[in-house]
TrEMBL record:
Residues 39-364 form the Beta-lactamase-related domain. This is Serine hydrolase domain-containing protein. It holds the Pfam family Beta-lactamase. It comes from Streptomyces doebereineriae. Its EC number is 3.1.1.103. Residues 1-26 form the signal peptide. Transmembrane segments: none annotated. Keywords: Hydrolase, Signal. One of its GO terms (molecular function) is hydrolase activity. It is an enzyme of class 3 (hydrolase). PANTHER family: D-ALANYL-D-ALANINE CARBOXYPEPTIDASE, D-ALANYL-D-ALANINE-CARBOXYPEPTIDASE/ENDOPEPTIDASE AMPH.
Amino acid sequence: MTVRTTVVVAATAVALTAGFAAPAMAAGAGAGDHDATRKAVRAAVKDGVPGVTLTAKDGGSTWSTTAGVGNLKTKAPRSADDRYRVGSITKTFVSTVLLQLEAEGRLSLDDTVEKWLPGVVHGNGHDGSRITVRQLLNHTSGIFNYTADETFGRTYFLKDGFLEHRYDTNTPEQLVAVAMAHQPDFAPGTSWNYSNTNYVVAGMVIQKVTGRSYGEEIRHRIIDPLHLTATSVPGTRVTVPQPSSRAYSKLARTATGPTYDVTRLNPSLASSAGEMISDSADLDRFYAALLKGRLLPPKQLKEMKTTVAVEGIPNAGYGLGLMDRKLSCGVHVWGHDGGIHGSSSVAVTTADGRHSVAFNFNGDWSGDTDAVVEAEFCGE
């Protein structure tokens, strides 16, 4: 999730703001020339983002840039090696695991939620027997988004609640129960709405099918094989491993007011919808490997890239934990963005996986992530 207002952001929702789009056939004006990207990163800092770290890979070359600070007190700069909370970028990892399980014949995307999690998605009109795994992954299930619950928002995203509850542990079952207290957004398969609950349920399905937590499966199936040395699934660990910068939020419904250090928090509030930690180089490697077919067979990668329309985001479609967006210069990029307290991140790559960029803002109330993506792939 990304957020311009802390409540929305902290909702761990996705920040479907950034440009993730689809694969590109043309390289775009920005290829090989990062001047526009450097300017866009600096503009984000001028707009109020404390600091930015970015790494791009284009063919065999890797380029990094940073701007601003990683610590408002010491003025220490951000590092190209900074690890950060990636929020809803977690969703692509979760979806990849489920598609691998489908390829192994251990489940079907058309299985119902009820088959694997009897009685979990039930109440106030929710009915897991009418919702498929596919609908969880492409956000067409209609399940209410638990981070949109007013009490949950006050507890974890606004100042007083966050400062009191930042270290609380939430179980997936508790998060789903928050959603079940509300009516569905729509009947399954009839519309689209981003819901973090979908991916909490998806993580629970992984555990039921494999007997291991979704985090263990991500480590076994993705992190270790790709040698993603900066990527982790923290569970209830409240710290971000070094090297890393501080993360800052307004903890308010507006972008004004005091700035708070929100680096330490219990990420179980995001669970399999958004708890992971990574760095820009690892995210570039992950999305490039995914689009190159190194993680999924052709059939499952095609399923992942089969998109539905995303309301409110022009020239974009949402697949299975993967967004496709056409940029202004005609280039398509695939990826995801993610927002969580004090952290706004984007990772995208072209369809052939050759040109990738991943970056992070260590503040959640300002800065234009779209502009950075456009600059890298389209130039000025």
